TrEMBL record:
Name this protein carries in UniProt: Cytochrome c5 family protein
Keywords, sorted A to Z: Electron transport, Heme, Iron, Metal-binding, Transport
Domain annotation Cytochrome c: ranges: 18-102
A Pfam cross-reference name: Cytochrome_CBB3
Organism: Geothermobacter hydrogeniphilus
Transmembrane segments: none
SUPFAM superfamilies the UniProt entry points to: Cytochrome c (SSF46626)
GO molecular function annotations of the record: electron transfer activity; heme binding; iron ion binding
Superkingdom of origin organism: Bacteria
Length: 103
């Protein structure tokens, strides 16, 4: 019996929590504070209708606004989600995640 318990504890110690994909991680760190709540007029993640109209501008335009920032009539998007340390690839990964969750 003790042998089985020992084996169970040994196996449990080897299990690690999954590491989120870069887009998920970056979204949570830089984007969620606005896109989860709609703060500053941000389009909320998961709002299919709202994202459909924005996607009409084209993904490249959305990426440019995400990287350089954007001041619109309704909302404000800070450059790189307010984190200047993010690379263009980081911003693209976060945008991909956001759009995937909003389809």
């Amino acid at each position: 019996m003790i042998r089985w318990l020992w084996l169970l504890f040994a196996c449990a110690a080897c299990v690690q929590a999954p590491v989120p994909e870069p887009g998920v991680r970056i979204y949570r760190q830089a984007c969620a504070r606005c896109h989860d709540t709609g703060k500053h007029g941000a389009q909320r993640i998961g709002d299919r209708e709202g994202w459909r109209s924005r996607l009409g501008q084209g993904r490249d335009t959305l990426l440019e606004h995400s990287i350089r920032g954007f001041e619109g009539a309704v909302g404000h998007m800070p450059p790189r989600g307010g984190n200047p340390a993010l690379s263009d690839a980081d911003v693209a990964a976060a945008l991909n995640y956001l759009l995937e969750q909003s389809r």
